[in-house]
Amino acid sequence: TSVMVLEMGGSYEDALLRSNARKLIDVCDAASNRAIAVHQAQALRINTTSGKFFVRGKAAESTDAQQADEQVIEGELDKRVALMIREPERGEDVEVEEEPEKPLESDTIVFYPDGSADAREFLLRDRAGVELLLRMNPTTSRVRIIEMAER
Asked: ∠ CA(146), CA(73), CA(45), 5° rounding?
């Protein structure tokens, strides 16, 4: 019985990690699709401490700026999974400007009407130390799982 409980604990942690990853991918897809549909940039803001997130239209130069800044999507990631948002490391599948790497000034990711988005990586870590890295393609704004490792 104890072996079975230990195996189930690992399965639960894995399911929790993958569930948060799926929720993060889904909200990025929704923000991107909304930006394209309404022809207005959408800002996804994630509080990495509380796990709460929301998507709002990025206020444009318009007569109805209040409506443009209306909250559209909101939710919460599980607090048992740690989240870190960072700029992606230079690599063959990521185009990054030639500026020196700097820490993120904000936990906001902007999705543009042309289907592009800010380049970001999401590092999720469960309580057992298992990590899951998600990378956003800035050209297509699609998020994909890069690697999973145990520490």
From this structure: 60
Query: Is residue 56 within 8 Å of residue 75, measured between CB atoms?
Result: no
Run of H or E residues at 125: strand 121-125
User: What confidence tens digit (pLDDT) does each residue in 112-141 have?
Assistant: 999 999 999 999 998 888 899 999 999 999
Question: Burial, 66: exposed, middle or buried (Cβ in 10 Å; 0-12, 13-18, 19+)?
Answer: exposed
Structure tokens at 12: 């639960």
Q: What are phi and psi of 135, to 5 degrees?
A: -125, 135
Return the exposure string of 22-59: e unless at least 16 CB atoms fall within 10 Å of the residue's CB, then b. Answer: ebbbebbebbbebbbeeebbbbbbbeeeebebbbbbbb
**Burial, 14: exposed, middle or buried (Cβ in 10 Å; 0-12, 13-18, 19+)?**
middle
Q: How far apart are CA 97 and CA 114, in angstroms?
A: 19
Q: Which amino acid is at 117?
A: A
pLDDT digits (tens, 9 = 90+) for 29-61: 999 999 999 999 999 999 988 889 999 987 643
Q: Could you tell me if residue 70 is left (phi over 0), alpha (psi between -120 and 50 degrees) or otherwise beta?
A: beta
Which two structure tokens, joined as six digits, stand for 104?
């993120």
**How far, in whole angstroms, is CA 125 from its chain's centroid?**
14
